[in-house]
From TrEMBL:
Residues 140-230 form the Acyl-CoA oxidase/dehydrogenase middle domain. It comes from the Bacteria. The lineage of its organism: Bacteria, Bacillati, Actinomycetota, Actinomycetes, Kitasatosporales. This is Acyl-CoA dehydrogenase. Its EC number is 1.3.99.-. GO terms for molecular function: fatty-acyl-CoA binding; flavin adenine dinucleotide binding; glutaryl-CoA dehydrogenase activity. Residues 25-136 form the Acyl-CoA dehydrogenase/oxidase N-terminal domain. It comes from Streptomyces chartreusis NRRL 3882. The keyword Flavoprotein applies. Its cofactor is FAD. Keywords: FAD, Flavoprotein, Oxidoreductase, Transit peptide. Signal peptide: none annotated.
Length: 396
């Protein structure tokens, strides 16, 4: 028997055999989320995107809660307690459907729930986390401001003491889930530095007007948060969240999900390009039979599966408690950048059809333009890595 006959067959969908790195439970979670997205998102997402709305967000949140996808990697309080790799696989499948759906899950679990889980009091955890894990309450995370994105230390939102109460004033911008949230985790300046607050959205003085006219993340709810003399009791503050360490650790957790999610968008575009190349005929044969098209597909496959392998490696490091923020920056910088290039190359293979919502390519490409800059721009992650590599701080 020849050596080659003992080898498993080549799988075009998994050319590096990465599924062999996964346990049966990992594969089961991945396949469950993929099936849910195929049933509940893919038949409708082009229409949602075209209309610029996510009309079923509350129903989707409850269904995602039933799947265990909300606060998925957190332990206790009704959360699934899944591994970091399992959470990453879920993010990949959700973003393969649409970045807006992954953003819903990411902001709910990795930002709002994570902040309460890590920095909140036991009473805050008991009050909010079980209902958020079930999708009964949607959360949002208020850090970015109209004039302060990459420099959150300069935020103007301020919380002052009034007796035993806190009174918040300020504005937050580009807040996913804002206008449908039942609770907002809001970061504000205080006389003791930056602190986080758990803000019920029915509080007097709180409003969340939805942001319209977006050309990216259109199947997602994005809002401004306005805090006008919002009065909160003393126990609204997150007791363990002081300084920028609090919100930045939340962002690092959310960026990890993006490392996986971006590869989901890339995979969707790659698969669309392969299918199209095998069926679209020009000059008497499928365009997939031409050398230039095959070169594009080969390059796309290499970057796609390298990115998935990188995400898997970072997930294993997170599960082992060894993942550093600089490594998360490495993953987000690489994977989002390569995902955008894969989408753009797929568009060239589909030609004019690449701009049609009958195919997922342009939708993913425009979504990734937001993913590229939110939760840390390219430049910020380059500077994070630059500082780590040289020991020199170039931020200021």
């Amino acid at each position: 028997m020849s050596e080659s006959s003992k080898l498993p067959p080549f799988d075009p969908a998994d050319p590096l055999g990465l599924d062999e790195l996964l346990e049966p439970e990992d594969l089961g979670i991945r396949d469950t989320v993929r099936a849910w997205a195929a049933d509940r998102v893919l038949p409708h997402v082009a229409e949602w995107y075209e209309k610029g709305e996510l009309p079923e967000i509350r129903e989707l949140a409850r269904e995602l809660g039933e799947l265990g996808a909300l606060g998925m990697s957190l332990k206790g309080y009704g959360c699934a307690g899944a591994s970091a790799v399992q959470y990453g696989l879920a993010c990949l499948e959700l973003e393969a459907a649409d970045s807006g759906i992954r953003s819903l899950v990411s902001v709910q679990g990795s930002l709002a729930m994570y902040a309460i889980h890590r920095f909140g009091s036991e009473a805050q955890k008991q009050q909010w986390l079980p209902r958020m894990a079930a999708g009964e309450v949607i959360g949002c995370f208020g850090l970015t401001e109209p004039d302060h994105g990459s420099d959150p230390a300069s935020m103007r939102t301020y919380a002052k003491r009034d007796g035993t109460d806190w009174v918040l004033n300020g504005r937050k911008m580009w807040i996913t889930n804002g206008s449908v949230a039942g609770v907002a985790v809001v970061w504000a300046q205080t006389e003791d530095g930056i602190r986080g607050f758990v803000v019920p959205t029915d509080s007097a003085g709180f409003s969340a007007p939805e942001i319209k006219h977006k050309w990216s993340l259109r199947a997602s709810v994005t809002s401004e948060l306005v805090l006008d003399e919002v009065r909160l009791p003393a126990d609204a503050v997150l007791p363990e969240g002081t300084g920028l360490r609090g919100p930045l650790s939340c962002l690092s957790h959310a960026r990890y999900g993006i490392v996986w999610g971006a590869m989901g968008a890339a995979r969707s575009c790659f698969e669309a390009a392969v299918d199209y190349a095998k069926s679209r005929e020009q000059f008497g044969r499928p365009i997939g039979g031409f050398q230039l098209t095959q070169a594009k597909l080969a390059d796309m496959a290499v970057e796609l599966h390298k990115g998935i392998l990188l995400a898997h490696h970072l997930g294993r490091r997170m599960d082992a408690g060894r993942l550093r923020p600089e490594q998360v920056s490495f993953g987000k910088l690489n994977n989002v950048r390569e995902a955008i290039e894969i989408c753009r190359t797929a568009r060239t293979i589909l030609g004019a059809n690449g701009i049609s919502l009958e195919y997922p390519v342009m939708r993913h490409a425009t979504n990734l333009e937001s993913v590229l800059t939110y939760e840390g721009t390219v430049e910020m992650h380059q500077l994070v890595l630059g500082k780590a590599l040289t020991g020199l701080d170039a931020f200021r």
